[in-house]
Amino acid sequence: MKDLPNIVSDLIETTKKHEQYRDKECINMIASEGIKSPAVSQMLDMSHDLATRYAEGENDREGHVKKRFYQGQKYMSQIEDYATDAIKSLFRATWADVRLISGTHANTATFKGLSLSSKNNKMVVTPLSCGAHISHDYTGLAGSILGIDNINHVYDINEFNIDPDKSAYVIRAAKPGIVTFGGSLFLFPHPIKELKEVCNEVGAYIAYDAAHVLGLIAGNQFQDPLREGADFITASTHKTFPGPQGGVIMGVPDTPAKEKAVRKIQYAVFPLTASSTHLGRLPALGIACLEMKVFGQELATQIIKNAQIAGQYLYENGVKVVAEHKGFTRSHQIALDVRSFGGGNKIAQELEDANIILNKNLLPYDDQSDKENPAGLRVGFQDVTRHGMREGDIKHLCDLMIDIIKGKRTPEQVKVDVMALKKEFGQVKYGFQSVEEALKYAKS
Ligand SMILES: *Cc1c(COP(=O)(O)O)cnc(C)c1O
Q: Which of 125, 184, 332 to mutate to test the pocket of ligand 1 (most atoms within 8 A of CB)?
């Protein structure tokens, strides 16, 4: 091992290389990664002191600061309240908690809180193989840390969605305390409305995991979980929602059962799972909320349109895109089956060699034990869209992908075109270019 100064100089140099590589030279199509506006990034830069502080304590029923244990909080408590109010306003929630540092943290507190509130340790979830996040699963957070028993929704592989009729039987028989919706491979809105009644009947809370689709929900283009029957939404604030890395929980607690759930979730946030709450991200989160209020509808519409255009174009050019009979997707992502071209592993690597970054993905009908050799690729369009790509640009990008998938050109040859395309779309659209601009808009 090198000595410490050399390690740190390597660390700094490598970080510079990373920033140049992923931010300037690669096209990002990872479906779980967001893209911050200059204003959001600048706000993070302006919040250095805040990013060193602690704000442990309790919050009230509106999600506002109630009690803090340290001194020096006079502005911090206001900042947290304003960030909470920004989230509540954008999503028409009456309660929110912004103290979560990630989507997994939001799920931790929510699943724990809801199982305490329902005194029921069973949770119905989408199967992991069909797109649920690992934190929902018995092999992950839910089972291995929280000790929650999983029962799977019935998933219709043909429809790429939960089967509402069959899942109703499962919920009625299992009588869980929690039913979850939402996921990581997430093409179509989940049937909350259809399953709301049976959840009520057995006394189960509905938790909707919007980590992937929060930005689409903000833009009113996917589904509206709180109005369709979800009791709580959990999410990351950095996937399609273009905020700083963090997590959030929100809801409309308008019944005694939901009010009780809020108290239990807050207890699961603090003191159970949070100490430092990474306060430096909160002002930037608020700016991202305003951006989504102003640009969210246009952005979300274009993201979904671009995903659908890519699905259609790739399909017409001989690449298998799943859910063709359903128009490929209603979200920011599509899923490709590239088994006949060598599989997800090989193609994802070759695309990386051409500076197109995405991830291989097991498809619901894949052998789930063979994680290293999935048929699928998951492709997200939130980044390219926010950089300004529209129909013609998306088709051009698809042509470059097809060259790789079909082996028409080498990754080295395609990379030149990818880097040129990236250069053309360097600016971040659908957002404020500076904090000053955001402030000017806010005050106008
Ligand atoms: C990404 C993801 C999470 C985890 O969020 P982090 O912020 O990465 O911890 C939770 N649920 C779903 C559905 C996700 O896709």
A: 184
